[in-house]
Amino acid sequence: MDHAADAYRTDLMTITRFVLNEQSKYPESRGDFSILLSHIVLGCKFVCSAVNKAGLAKLIGLAGETNVQGEEQKKLDVLSNEVFVKALVSSGRTCILVSEEDEEATFVEHSKRGKYCVVFDPLDGSSNIDCGVSIGTIFGIYLVKDGAEPTVGDVLKPGKNMVAAGYCMYGSSCTLVLSSGSGVNGFTLDPSLGEFILTHPDIRIPKKGKIYSVNEGNAKNWDEPTRKYVERCKFPQDGSSPKSLRYIGSMVADVHRTLLYGGIFMYPADKKSPNGKLRVLYEVFPMSFLMEQAGGQAFTGNIRALDLVPTKIHQRSPVFLGSYDDVEEIKALYAAQEGKA
Ligand SMILES: O=P(O)(O)OC[C@H]1O[C@](O)(COP(=O)(O)O)[C@@H](O)[C@@H]1O
Ligand SMILES: [Mg+2]
Ligand SMILES: [Mg+2]
Q1: What is the pLDDT of residues 157-202, one digit of tens each?
Q2: Whose CA is nearest to atom 1 of ligand 1?
Q3: Shared domain check, 18 and 158
Q4: Looking at this predicted complex, what is its ipTM?
Q5: Are residues 194 and 215 in the same domain?
Q6: Which PROSITE patterns does the annotation name (predicted)?
Q7: Which of 63, 73, 220, 268 has the fewest C-beta atoms lying within 10 Å of its C-beta?
Q8: Residue 270 lies in a domain
Q9: pLDDT tens digits for range 50-72
Q10: Assigned domain for 206 exists
Q11: Nearest atom of ligand 1 to the alpha carbon of 254
Q12: Cβ(121) – ligand 1 distance below 6 Å
């Protein structure tokens, strides 16, 4: 199909057109959210092109710095972070930025300030960069009350307070998945047009799935409910077929597959990492927001993930997210352990 010809097809739903349609439902809107999103989209396009030519452009390997998590930063971690910080500040719609790669929150200077806080993981799946396996960018958006002086307290809020969340996966195709609180939609980048086109309208995750996704290398340190659940996935007692194991090691890619195919993605706590590995603000919350909007759910091993109230910007939390019925099963095992059943 010749996409160039498609450019003249008036019904082509680009992400810009989609967002402006959404905006038109709110006559009082000044378009701030649409402008912010257009800058996030620009950042994703830029990072997508850098990822595609990483090997050619010597963007493979370490940057020589260590981030606040104690992780050695990859060149693409640093570049993606710079791209998104610049794009978000230049939107003129943000006041606080929290990035996985920056120790402190960034307060945007007054003259360029807006009313949104953006929490983001500029490049997720860093361990997969150098081998060309799917990686991504994750973001969440909070709104600061009009006229209020923004403080870090404006992002240390439950995930359910976010007004939007999304991720962009840099894989065999570049896919941006987004929710602003009324369902989840997926857009694929058409490289010939340079436009994200609506390809996955109103994504609904299957109620139950056939896939479980977890790093089994940590199994010996897991707690009882996690061990029992994974055992059940492999050796079901109810006559159903065993689930298949799929684990890419990039949260964006593992969650994208889970959203489309169903099943469960887990990064549980274990003896070595009592709070798991994934960060609440820019990994757990955005993905949990999308999961719930698509009809799934997200659980920490204790509470609904979006009810969590973080106290630190780089706080970690265990997470179990995916198909409603699959997460219900692990919730029951934790409740049983709590003696609540
Ligand atoms: O190698 P592990 O312990 O399974 O961890 C993989 C997880 O770590 C991450 O790579 C952490 O994210 P970053 O790459 O953004 O630091 C997730 O994408 C992924 O789900
Ligand atoms: Mg990450
Ligand atoms: Mg990262």
Answers
A1: 999 999 999 999 999 999 999 999 999 999 999 999 999 999 999 9
A2: 249
A3: yes
A4: 0.98
A5: no
A6: FBPASE
A7: 220
A8: yes
A9: 999 998 888 888 888 888 788 89
A10: no
A11: 20
A12: yes
